[in-house]
Design brief:
By secondary structure, the chain is an alpha/beta fold. A five-stranded parallel β-sheet has the order 2-3-1-4-5.
Length: 272
């Protein structure tokens, strides 16, 4: 069959490693570790693809160490990560981040998202598109028997139990040099965001390299030609636009979110 001739994930990974082995590093990051902290549904997989790109590697020399657990309230670290790495999508609270043993030369950032949009994104991912790992199979089973309105309420309670809202709240007290990025910055202008990210991480990529990287990692390229804002509920890249909560969340759902998460929306600086 045709599919049998396609390279496996492992063979693709080996090919990438071989390619990198022969790729010169033009600049090595002065940071022994970079920590990408976040909560789920904040373009974390997209960012991981950025770190795996040759442009990022060429100008940092950093290997990618992915954290794939649900994390949040259950995350705990008492050992350092390997040096000369970027640790990506650490789904953790700020107190948990402080627990991580860190080298003197490190840089950290956190990616937040409007909790209202995060709820919507969580609902559709758990209901349709996310790989069946971790909490997803149970959530998918339950959501399949519910209306969307019921499912939104269920999702709010489920991610609150995981510690999602608490993690978002905890990063409101983070101070420089930790930087807070917003998912909305990525969704609204991923080219500008990449420039800001590379500047913060002191990565001296040329403008043309950044432009090429932005082209390769665009929403349209990743979805095979679908325009940003064009919805596909069965895709993990469902829509890619902020503010979707205005049409997806009823007044009752918004009231429930407020009861569960308190003043989180305003605390994070999002308009009502």
């Amino acid at each position: 069959m045709q599919a049998e001739n396609r390279p496996s994930k492992m063979s693709k990974r080996l090919a990438t490693l071989r390619r990198r082995a022969g790729l010169g590093v033009s600049h090595r990051s002065r940071f022994a570790n970079i920590y990408h902290c976040c909560v789920q549904r904040t373009a974390s997989q997209w960012l991981r693809n950025i770190y795996n790109d040759e442009v990022f590697y060429r100008h940092t020399g950093l290997r990618v160490v992915p954290y794939i657990d649900v994390g949040l309230a259950n995350a705990h670290f008492d050992e350092p990560f390997p040096e000369r790495t970027i640790v990506t999508h650490l789904y953790i609270s700020h107190p948990t981040y402080l627990e991580i043993p860190k080298p003197a030369a490190h840089r950290s950032f956190f990616v937040q998202r409007d909790p209202r949009d995060a709820v919507v994104s969580w609902y559709f991912a758990a209901r349709y598109s996310h790989k069946p790992i971790g909490v997803i199979p149970e959530m998918r089973r339950d959501l399949s028997a519910m209306s969307q309105e019921e499912g939104i309420h269920y999702t709010i309670d489920a991610i609150a139990k995981l510690g999602y809202f608490d993690a978002l709240r905890s990063w409101a007290v983070a101070e420089p040099p930790v930087h807070i990025f917003r998912y909305e910055e990525i969704a609204e202008d991923h080219r500008r965001f990449l420039g800001d990210l590379f500047e913060f991480l002191e990565i001296p990529a040329r403008r043309d390299e950044l432009e090429s990287l932005a082209d390769r990692k665009s929403f349209q390229r990743a979805t095979g030609g679908r325009s940003q804002g064009e919805e596909d509920v069965h895709s993990h890249l469902r829509k890619g636009t902020p503010g979707d909560w205005r049409t997806a969340l009823s007044d009752d759902a918004l009231d429930h979110l407020h009861r569960v998460s308190g003043d989180l929306v305003s605390l994070l600086g999002y308009e009502p």
